[in-house]
Amino acid sequence: MSETILQLKDASIYQGENLVLSNVNVEINKGEFVYLIGKTGTGKSSFMKTLYGDLPLNEGEGFIVDYDLKTLKEKDIPFLRRKLGVIFQDFKLLIDRTVNDNLLFVLKATGWKDKDKMTAKVEEVLTKVGMKTKGFKFPHELSGGEQQRVAIARALLNDPELILADEPTGNLDPQTSVEVMKVLQEINKNGNTILMATHDYALLLKYPSKTLKCDENQVYEVVQRKG
Ligand SMILES: Nc1ncnc2c1ncn2[C@@H]1O[C@H](COP(=O)(O)OP(=O)(O)OP(=O)(O)O)[C@@H](O)[C@H]1O
């Protein structure tokens, strides 16, 4: 039987007083790669933010990696985020330290203590994204695509049950986007569940997968045409 990683039932998503999405019914199972598409302003980021606890869920039901979004407390959020790997359009790397130190910083902040294990973990995740030899570099010494690979490596540090990627290729040229996408596909093949918001239809066509669309305050699954 497939394991449910995310389930929203009749959920409404708000930005303050404004209703962004209503009657959201979405289920994501372990191992799936799911796109979230929709025009600008239709609520993709708000949807993602609700999932990682940046926006509260006040209406409907929402369960994500064993957390109930409806009863989520402020103090639970860091623990929820440890089970999620979040990737943003603008990478969000710390610019004042090397790639290795960016990753070690996250491990320390999430309670890792053993130096050897930390070094081994950093090497493991950098290897997964093809950046093993670049750990000594500072973010500004890397291309956009390389910085995004590091951000993906960072998202993998605590073996997340679900990766939420909000427009991860939004700042990259088409060729680099495909390279980053290949990394995400590889990670998915190795068992990680991924939800990726994007407006890059070229990627969707090249790597077809289950697709959810935000439109007119609704989220629904779209069937991709073949050929
Ligand atoms: N901080 C905020 N406060 C109030 N309203 C907001 C806020 N952020 C977004 N909104 C509104 O919520 C709606 C959905 O925005 P959201 O950013 O989720 O869309 P999106 O689909 O991710 O767009 P984009 O592709 O441009 O990132 C929009 O009408 C937007 O104006």
TrEMBL record:
<dbReference type="GO" id="GO:0016887">
    <property type="term" value="F:ATP hydrolysis activity"/>
</dbReference>
<dbReference type="Pfam" id="PF00005">
    <property type="entry name" value="ABC_tran"/>
</dbReference>
<dbReference type="InterPro" id="IPR015854">
    <property type="entry name" value="ABC_transpr_LolD-like"/>
</dbReference>
<comment type="similarity">
    <text>Belongs to the ABC transporter superfamily.</text>
</comment>
<dbReference type="GO" id="GO:0022857">
    <property type="term" value="F:transmembrane transporter activity"/>
</dbReference>
<feature type="domain" description="ABC transporter">
    <location>
        <begin position="6"/>
        <end position="225"/>
    </location>
</feature>
<protein>
    <recommendedName>
        <fullName>Cell division ATP-binding protein FtsE</fullName>
    </recommendedName>
</protein>
<keyword id="KW-0067">ATP-binding</keyword>
<dbReference type="InterPro" id="IPR017871">
    <property type="entry name" value="ABC_transporter-like_CS"/>
</dbReference>
<dbReference type="GO" id="GO:0005524">
    <property type="term" value="F:ATP binding"/>
</dbReference>
<dbReference type="InterPro" id="IPR003439">
    <property type="entry name" value="ABC_transporter-like_ATP-bd"/>
</dbReference>
<dbReference type="InterPro" id="IPR027417">
    <property type="entry name" value="P-loop_NTPase"/>
</dbReference>
<dbReference type="GO" id="GO:0005886">
    <property type="term" value="C:plasma membrane"/>
</dbReference>
<keyword id="KW-0547">Nucleotide-binding</keyword>
<dbReference type="InterPro" id="IPR003593">
    <property type="entry name" value="AAA+_ATPase"/>
</dbReference>
<comment type="function">
    <text>Part of the ABC transporter FtsEX involved in cellular division. Important for assembly or stability of the septal ring.</text>
</comment>
